[in-house]
Amino acid sequence: MAPMIAVEDLSVTFRSAGREFRAVQNVSFDVAPGETFGIVGESGSGKSTILRAIAGLVPSASKRLEVNGRPAALRRSRDDRRMLQFVFQDPYASLHPRQTVDDILREPLEIHHEDNIDKRVTAAIADVGLSPTHRFRYPHQLSGGQRQRVAIARALILSPPILLLDEPTSALDVSVQAEILNLLGKLRQTYSLTSILVSHDLAVVAHLCNRIAIMQFGRLVETITADDLRSGDVTADYTRQLIAASRGFTRASA
Amino acid sequence: MSASLLTIEDLNVSFPGRSGITHAVRNASFTLGRERLGIVGESGSGKSTTGRALLGLVPRPGIVTAQTMTYAGRNLLACSEREWQELRGRRMSMVMQDPKYSLNPVQTVGHQISETCYLHLRTSREDARRRTIAMLEAVQIRDPELVSQLYPHQLSGGMGQRVMIAMMLIAEPDLLIADEPTSALDVTVQNEVLRILDALVRERGMGLIFISHNLTVVSSFCDRVLIMYGGRIVEECAARDLNNARHPYTRALVAATPSLDVPRAELATVVRDPAWLQ
Amino acid sequence: MTDTLSSWLTTDAPASRRQAVLGNLYRGGTAILRNPTALVGLIIVALLLLAAVFAPLLSTYSPIAQDLPNRLAPPSPAHWFGTDELGRDILARTLFGARVTLTIVALVSIVVAPIGLAVGTVAGYAGGWVDAVLMRITDVFLAFPRLVLALAFAAALGPGIENAVIAISLTAWPAYARIARSETLAIAQSDFIQAAVLQGASTWRILFRHIVPLCLSSVIVRLTLDMAGIILTAAGLGFLGLGAQPPTAEWGAMVSSGRDVILDQWWVATIPGLAIFIVSLGFNLLGDGLRDVFDPKSA
After folding, report:
1. Which of A200, B57, C86, C167 is paired with B48 by a 20 to 30 Å CA distance?
2. What is the ipTM of this complex?
3. Is the CB of C14 less than 8 angstroms away from the CB of A136?
4. Which of B212, C175, C242 is nearest to A249 (CA)?
């Protein structure tokens, strides 16, 4: 089966004031349809940058960068935009502060000249576990978890086959994180989504993803399955370090 | 059993506001000896406010009341601002979350650490410099002479936190309050910093209060844990006994945390019982 | 009744878009009214509006009716503010002069705010050479001193309110472009803008629906503070004879014509001068208060 997302030799370099910073270097991976692919790394590993390159938010160079069989250029048509959507990390920054939930959810439908807007907005709100009383609230009247639900509803309202998630629960409390992760699990089942989940938290990634890529300093260290991660059956030392560190504090072998 | 360094009984912190009074901390009571106490809670649980109340740092218009608030025999409730200034840094210190925001950006790191020496230990300039370098070595900074000349924005996250720890421990306090000290750090750096904290606290026989939202880190680092919810302490137990916690909120929190070792199809969610707020 | 209305407006769960928008306005409004500076400013501006609208009802005389035997009469029960050098009632002229002032302020506002917003947001969002070109054009207009440009216009096109408005607008819009540009730069990289880009929103839609609403509060604050300056400039032009032409009552022109008799008949120049002062102060206070409410950090 042809991969839904095909990345071959992707590199992203940022240039400013004559200096060059290579955020992503020669990364290659495939994501099969319906798969949830995880990308794990620490800060500066380039994991979020890869996601933004696939979404076309940052320019990149690659041998191949294809979404659903078609090359993903930097300039995308409105139709191309229906293919993939994004959920951002910071629930406080991803919603327009002067728009109500209703405004935020109508926007993609209006841009694409869809009909039945009212019905679809109500359905989207119910889909992510919000109640109709939330529909006309402004973001500052919602909690972090509720805002993230709105962001997810916004991403899914056009029924994209692909969902990109950039640390969707890092800014949330543990109990809220659990609700959002459960919601994502349910939604990807209902809508047969193909997704890429980026996180620094190994446990979160292992919970939701089938296969996981480990990134360090812009390079892909290795790609393993969630089971390998849990059993510790990995090849790279860095991955072992990450696994050990995620278990909490240990009084030093060192 | 170590004698109590800190005794808190019935601590209440409230913030009067336009729409009524917010009770950030309600009837909190606990003691601390020369051990590590973790305070775990989600946002709004009152854990950070508790930490600040212990140092007299609750911002206006907050009101702090308690039946007892003693530190090393001293009644904190009766302290004037001057007496607080003598205590802070010298007898009790606080390490905060992000060194970017807690270090002075226009002074070199060495200068900031030495300043603590003059103020509290009244050493000479030379002596302060020597102690600063020694302290930077103690937090395992490889080139202490060079680093002491750097400004905070030139340091990485982990290094910044180590500098922060050096600055807070140089006057040799008996109590350190660490408010989310590793939350802004990468997970591999986190453990390095925790190891340094562990070694220093053990060597000096200090008391440590570790405030965090991260149950995994707190339960692996601390001896005892307090769980806070809605301003109240709902559970107090030994860190290793967390899995057998009694309060439903604690059990729910443990069950909601995803873990590498326990694969779950669905994570348990916390069903908030309003009775917990009573 | 008012209890249910205010709870309807302040509810946390609005049931329709209208309720949400009205609730938001209500909250903003009460915040403004709670700020003492803004309240005083608002009262003064409201008085200005009332004076302008109800001028014919409030004055018993016509502003242009001359009464030469009664010229330069001091304030008395017949003429509360006295009469000027042609016997016209100063109270009436002051009230009708409010109309001229308001007209100038309103016209300038509706010209400079949209132009400034358009130029600033496009420059901030597009960046690159578009930004550079637009900002250099802005700099050119910033370089003109207001009064000198107005004199040039008056010389070229003749005096009058319209030309005064054009002259003032041409030199006032650059400040708004700069404000709009800096607000745009701050939010252009925000996640919610990126989300709109990802949905396929056109640049026009992003600018108009997402960016401009966020620039509005800074622009409104600046506009209110600027109005004091605009009033003074208009009065200055009037003083030089370049604004509203006689016999229309205009505060600046009134001050000018009262100059000659200021020592003996102080009321002719002072009353319109006070009016200018109070209204400028009112706008200044309102602007200060609005800034405290909308953007407390820059106070």
Report:
1. A200
2. 0.90
3. yes
4. B212
